């Protein structure tokens, strides 16, 4: 399962610096709007200490971490839903993502222009979310009328009525300016509107770009208070400073500089963790002499569903799985010891896979 997170924000708020920080790949950092016209895409490994330990236990030749794909999308401006700026091209790039990191500028700077000529995080947040709502509103209206017309001609088809009603519900909230991810939809309703890939239905989290030496805790508190009803995870990171610190190779020099900024650790790693958290993603492991590998899966998935993540043939021909868990084997020193302690058990196709399970899939060949 590919995990894609779009880095979205107004021009000149540090998105490309964040992208470079996360991926260690230069992203055309320039001080003018739309420096990133086509989205920069890069893969960021999700380091996993448990996988490192499993490699030692199974004496594996290599380890394969999971990864998140970050997409640095060109700056959004008011009117994007109507074609202004990069318009629909911008919005189409967001539609490819599983989640959206809304990047909000908090840092003051005379050298880096703000598209609105002032620092106002609440205004920027509202502008960003409103453009996403407007984009969804147009799409929802168009599809609602199409489905409604079909239903009028085919009122004997219950699935059309269900789709029509789900779209009507979404439309009513969008007209009120509400993000769809703030609405309680039933599973059936979500299934009926899934195909339309509404942007405001995606998972959001907020990344505030601050200046560690000039940060305003009062401004941050005000922002958190005014956005708390959205229940979006929020983190504050100084992109430029952490980018510079992450580039220091000498550990002694790095520790010295981190003390200068009163940092115990680099905070940008938490952005990865937030991405995983909002997507409700968990990990299982496959382990052997050749490699140990981490696989991401959606919480609640069955053993057979997870088998398909590895290969369709394994899923199609699934027999059963041999299962253990990292917490059961972490104190063992070899695969042989795990077997001797009977820490493996067999599970069937409907077994609900748990976080940090170790799975060996048996299938017909």
The ordered H/E elements are: EHEHEEHEHHHEHEHHHEEHHEHHEE
Number of strands: 12
Strand order of the largest sheet: 2-4-1-5-6-7
Taken from the alpha-carbon principal axes, the silhouette is flat
Classify the beta-strand content into a percent band.
15-25%
Low-confidence stretches: 25-37
Return the average pLDDT rounded to an integer.
Answer: 87
Measured as a percent range, the helix fraction is 40-55%
The assigned structural class equals alpha/beta
Q: Please summarize the sheet with the most strands.
A: 6 strands, mixed
Q: What integer value in Å does the Rg equal? A: 23 Å
Annotation field: number of helices: 14
- Terminal Cα separation, in Å? 24 Å
């Amino acid at each position: 399962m590919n995990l894609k997170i779009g880095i979205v924000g107004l021009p000149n708020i540090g998105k490309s610096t964040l992208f470079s920080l996360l991926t260690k790949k230069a992203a055309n950092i320039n001080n003018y709007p739309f420096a990133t016209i086509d989205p920069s895409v890069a893969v960021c490994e999700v380091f996993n200490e448990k996988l490192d330990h499993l490699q030692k236990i199974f004496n594996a030749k290599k380890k394969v971490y999971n990864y998140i794909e970050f997409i640095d999308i060109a700056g959004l401006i008011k009117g994007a839903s109507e074609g202004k700026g990069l318009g629909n091209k911008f919005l189409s790039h967001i539609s490819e993502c599983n989640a959206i990191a809304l990047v909000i500028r908090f840092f003051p700077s005379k050298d880096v222009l703000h598209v609105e000529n002032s620092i106002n995080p609440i205004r920027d947040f509202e502008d960003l979310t409103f453009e996403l709502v407007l984009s969804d509103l147009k799409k929802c209206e168009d599809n609602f009328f199409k489905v409604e017309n079909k239903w009028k001609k085919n009122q004997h088809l219950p699935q059309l009525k269900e789709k029509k009603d789900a779209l009507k519900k979404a439309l009513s909230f969008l007209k009120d300016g509400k993000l769809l991810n703030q609405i309680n939809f039933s599973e059936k309703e979500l299934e009926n509107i899934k195909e339309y890939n509404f942007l405001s239905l995606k998972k959001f989290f907020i990344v505030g770009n601050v200046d560690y030496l000039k940060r305003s805790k009062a401004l941050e508190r005000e922002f958190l208070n005014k956005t708390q009803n959205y229940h979006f995870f929020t983190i504050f990171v100084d992109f430029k400073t952490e980018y510079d610190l992450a580039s220091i190779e000498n550990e002694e020099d790095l520790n010295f500089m981190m003390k200068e900024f009163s940092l115990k650790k680099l905070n940008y790693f938490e952005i990865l963790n937030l991405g995983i958290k909002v997507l409700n993603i968990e990990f299982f492991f496959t382990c052997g002499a050749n490699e140990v590998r981490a696989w991401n899966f959606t919480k609640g998935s069955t053993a057979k569903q997870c088998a398909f993540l590895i290969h369709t043939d394994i899923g199609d021909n699934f027999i059963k799985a041999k299962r253990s868990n990292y917490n059961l084997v972490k104190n063992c020193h070899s695969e042989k010891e795990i077997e001797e302690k009977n820490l493996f058990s067999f599970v069937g196709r409907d077994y609900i896979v748990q976080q940090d399970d170790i799975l060996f899939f048996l299938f017909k060949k």
